[in-house]
From TrEMBL:
The keyword Chaperone does not apply. InterPro entries: MetI-like, MetI-like_sf. CDD domains: TM_PBP2 (cd06261). Its main location: membrane. Keywords: Cell membrane, Membrane, Transmembrane, Transmembrane helix, Transport. The lineage of its organism: Bacteria, Bacillati, Actinomycetota, Actinomycetes, Micrococcales. Signal peptide: none annotated. This is Carbohydrate ABC transporter permease. It comes from Cryobacterium tagatosivorans. It comes from the Bacteria. It is found in: Cell membrane. Belongs to the binding-protein-dependent transport system permease family.
């Protein structure tokens, strides 16, 4: 009898759940929520897929099938052209422009410039954020308000004064000239780290002061280890930002020893002896240029999201 009663009760509860209108609405809401998520993912990933599709297409045949979702006449030619491994005859046979750039040199220039900016900026910004968050000094909040106002100033307004400064210092056409305006600190970097530093338990710092630790030792041995995930996240975000920068490197770096990869790809696009840009070659170059960013996001993507949430940056 007990088993029969149990089965009857379970059947009754199941029938009750099936008849519950709120449960039906919940299922519908979940379905449309997941459908919306799938649509957003497809919209986000489609440009990346289209870059892959174009990068492995024959540039001449591609225009005959512009709506094809698969590479048109699959070929490695675009990658070879942008890396300078294809002859002019091979490039022209596939609809390429015959243009070439010093891809390896530009890649090394980009790595050098972005690394220089990131290392110096994160180092000095973390010190400034520590001073704004955990040190008490006269006028601290007023000075920080100035930094917040600087966040609202469009970067285009600082191009001319920065260019004049770099020119007067004789740093045009150099990696240091490209890095100088942002290599020490930026308002965003200071704000990002300050938000996390404000959450550090002050009792830890007070205990260190009682033990005789100075501010430099507290910063180096306590604050930096506690904030290391946020510091790494900031470094990755800034590296990605300056890796994709175009206008400032274009203005300052015009020599082969200072051109960055974004500038080089722009030059590759503009070299059109046959009248039409080599879109397949351009997408191949963009694909190679995006590889370091893809790797960073795959390895540190979860850490970046978590650190941004803990820092209160929305």
């Amino acid at each position: 009898m007990t088993i029969i009663a149990f089965k009857a009760g379970r059947a009754a509860r199941q029938a009750s759940r099936e008849d519950d209108p709120s449960l039906a609405k919940s299922k519908v809401a979940k379905f449309f929520g997941r459908l919306a998520l799938v649509i957003v993912i497809l919209i986000t990933l489609f440009p990346i897929y289209w870059m892959f599709r174009t990068a492995f297409s024959n540039n001449r045949a591609m225009f005959a099938e512009p709506l094809s979702l698969l590479p048109v006449d699959f070929t490695w030619g675009p990658l070879k052209r942008v890396l300078g491994l294809a002859t002019t005859e091979e490039a022209l046979a596939e609809g390429g422009s015959g243009a070439s750039i010093n891809f390896a040199q530009y890649m090394l220039n980009s790595i050098a410039a972005c690394t220089l900016i990131t290392v110096f900026q994160v180092t000095f910004s973390s010190m400034a954020a520590y001073a704004f968050a955990l040190l008490n000094w006269k006028g601290r909040d007023k000075v920080f308000s100035i930094f917040l106002i600087a966040l609202m100033v469009p970067g285009i307004f600082t191009l001319l004064p920065n260019f004049i400064l770099v020119k007067d210092l004789g740093l045009l056409n150099s990696i240091l000239g490209i890095a100088l305006p942002t290599m020490f600190m930026t308002p965003f970097a200071i704000f990002f780290l300050r938000q996390f530093f404000l959450g550090i338990n002050r009792s830890i710092i007070e205990a260190a002061v009682i033990d005789g630790a100075n501010q430099w030792r507290i910063f180096r041995t306590i604050v930096v280890p506690l904030a290391w995930p946020q510091i790494i996240t900031l470094a990755i975000l800034q590296f990605i930002q300056y890796w994709n920068d175009y206008l400032w490197p274009f203005l300052v770096g015009q020599s082969e020893q200072s051109k960055l990869l974004t500038v080089g790809l722009g030059i590759f696009k503009s070299q059109t002896p046959q009248g039409n840009p080599d879109w397949a070659g351009l997408m191949a170059g963009a694909l190679i240029a995006a590889v370091p960013i893809f790797i960073l996001m795959l390895v540190f993507g979860r850490k970046i999201v978590g650190s941004i949430q803990s820092s209160g940056v929305k």
